[in-house]
Amino acid sequence: MPPILTLNDGHPLPAIGFGLYKVDPAETEAVVTAGIDAGYPLIDGGAFYDNERQLGAAVRASGRRDELLVASKVWGDPVQSYDQTLADFDRSAADLDIGVVDIYMIHWPRPARNAYVDVWRAMIRLREEGRVRTIGVCNFNAQELQRLEDETGVVAPINQVESHPWMPQHDLREYHREHGIVTQAWSPLGRGRLLEDPTLIEMAERLGVSVAQVVLRWHVQLGGAAVPKSRNADRLRANLDLDGFELSEQDMARIAGLENGTRTGSDPKDRQ
């Protein structure tokens, strides 16, 4: 089982969870149930995914709510404000219907609106009221993270960003390390495109594992976290099975050589 990280707020974060982006609502309960059965302790959801009612239903039906961490995100469009964040949280909490939300994050900073600090203040209130255990952010750069800290005194425990061997985000990861922030990767497999990379294929064949396992092991050995997505029960189980092998320094160096800056998802600058 991948390690459990300790956040700067004292709460745990499993290094590997699974995500529900673009999972059809009609399939969500079955996918979440498969993930829970595979042993995942973290389910990464969000209001924008439009499947929170089905996520909550699967968690309740599992009878294992106390063993699971469930994440949600505030979308922030068309309105991004303190009051709207509280209203959006109320809607997500009602759809999930699982009690306290374990992790609640700002989905995008949308800096042109100059509202993300107010959104963060609303998140702090939700945490102080005990409605959320951990608050975090997604897709923030170092300057935006620093502004949150400077203006509220609260450092984000998690920043979920696109990160994979083609775009590892080393500078941002270093800022995170200096400030006690966990780098959690979305699109950790480059939306599946990395599965066709010849270097990674050769490495996986030599180690006797899948390419996805190689890449997820890379995330873990960097000290970060990741939320891969799969609708396939066998792949869900395999993505958790990272203990039986280790990437050598040479392997890590070869993976570092794959960096080319390729994004497979939205650039935060395009979300305003």
Automatic annotation (TrEMBL):
InterPro entries in UniProt: AKR, Aldo/ket_reductase_CS, NAD(P)_OxRdtase_dom_sf, NADP_OxRdtase_dom
Binding site for substrate: 107
Positions of the NADP-dependent oxidoreductase domain: 18-258
GO molecular-function terms, A-Z: oxidoreductase activity, acting on the CH-OH group of donors, NAD or NADP as acceptor
Keyword Amino-acid biosynthesis: no
UniProt site (Lowers pKa of active site Tyr): 73
Alphabetical keyword list: NADP, Oxidoreductase
Active site: 49 (proton donor)
Pfam families xrefs: Aldo_ket_red
SUPFAM superfamilies reported in the protein's UniProt record: NAD(P)-linked oxidoreductase
Homology family: Belongs to the aldo/keto reductase family.
PANTHER family: 2,5-DIKETO-D-GLUCONIC ACID REDUCTASE, NADP-DEPENDENT OXIDOREDUCTASE DOMAIN-CONTAINING PROTEIN
Protein name: Aldo/keto reductase
Record organism: Nakamurella flava
